[in-house]
Amino acid sequence: MPPPTPLAYRHGQAASVGVLLANLGTPDEPTPAALRRYLAEFLSDRRVVEIPRILWWPILHGIILRTRPAASAAKYASVWMPEGSPLAVWTARQAKLLQGYLGERGCAVSVRPAMRYGNPSIASALDAFQAEGVRRILVLPAYPQYSGATTASTFDAVSAWAGRTRWIPEFRFVHQYHDDVAYIAALAANVRAHWEREGRGEMLLMSFHGMPERTLTLGDPYHCHCQKTARLLAEELRLAPQQWRISFQSRFGRAKWLGPATDASLKELAAGGTRRVDVICPGFAADCLETLEEIAQEGKETFLHAGGQAFHYIPCLNAAPAGMAALAELARRHLSGWCDAPSAGARELEASRQRAMALGARD
Q: Are residues 247 and 191 in the same domain?
């Protein structure tokens, strides 16, 4: 199907503005068939799996896509919400709220959610912006910490769409916000609210998504960004060094990954006498399979089985007011000049231009 036809260009028309809120992706349904489609797209991305195609293709199509979809579908089914996948549900809510938050700040924009893999795709969201006549687009990947496998891959998808488009909009791109003051404050407020409701544990474990260790040696800043986020959050919460740790989850394959591993850390803490642990995932803007199943379910089982007494998962920011305010402020800064109220000089210049056009029309 051809992409929607953009609105006809009109001289003097103000460029409308859009914000593309992009997250990683999710299957359409918690079924083996849907997981097979999703995993095929996800694991075919050269940014995600950097193994040469000649070696990776037989593994992906001969083993992984034959065996993994059923197991993954069962995991997704355990966290599926009535409205759909948790990641899709939360990202859609965030997009709707972000448009409202920005509007309250005098920034009238159209905000659309999109997924790097799955639906709604980045290409379909950009097509919709074109059909609306949006000529300026802020791409906001929902990844606080930059990684080639996430942030850069989002840029790849936008570039691929642009390569098929004749009239390319003006783009801006949010690189990262791992040390953003409002983001750190929102995380801290989320932790404090949880402690007020549930009490406080002896240890706060900050679990980030894992990446192969070679990504660090190749120059990816992800590991450093995670370390800084964790340190700033600990400082904001005024935690002593023995009251918090950082770890990395979601390992895959036999390569050496960033460590320490979250499951190993949970076992070590329980074996060392920690009775209660609180776990937060600061690298995820919204709850998803990796937080709800891997941490809240599997992580809890790991800790309790190793001798721990109480495990508490602290949800992601999701649609929390502090988190949405932080996201809105981040977007507003990057939208500077696009949706700000025009200055008196700019208004006078536009008025002069309109008068000149009117005189020319009469002549």
A: yes
CB of 212 closer than 8 Å to CB of 256: yes
Taking the CA atoms of residue 316, residue 322, residue 328 and residue 332 in that order, the dihedral angle to the nearest 10 degrees is -130
pTM higher than 0.85, yes or no? yes
- DSSP, collapsed to helix, strand or coil, labels residue 329 as helix
DSSP 178-234: TT-HHHHHHHHHHHHHHHHHH---SEEEEEEE--BTHHHHTT--HHHHHHHHHHHHH
- Domain of 206 in residue numbering reads as 181-314
> In terms of domains, do 148 and 22 share one?
yes
Cα–Cα distance, 338 to 80 (Å, whole number) = 38
Q: Are residues 247 and 282 in the same domain?
A: yes
Give the span between the Cα atoms of 73 and 37, in whole angstroms: 12
- What whole-number distance in Å separates Cα of residue 336 and Cα of residue 340? 6
pLDDT in tens, 56-95: 999 999 999 999 999 999 999 999 999 999 999 999 999 9
Residue 349, helix vs strand vs coil: helix
209 belongs to an annotated ligand binding site = yes
| Cα gap 144→246, rounded to integer Å | 16
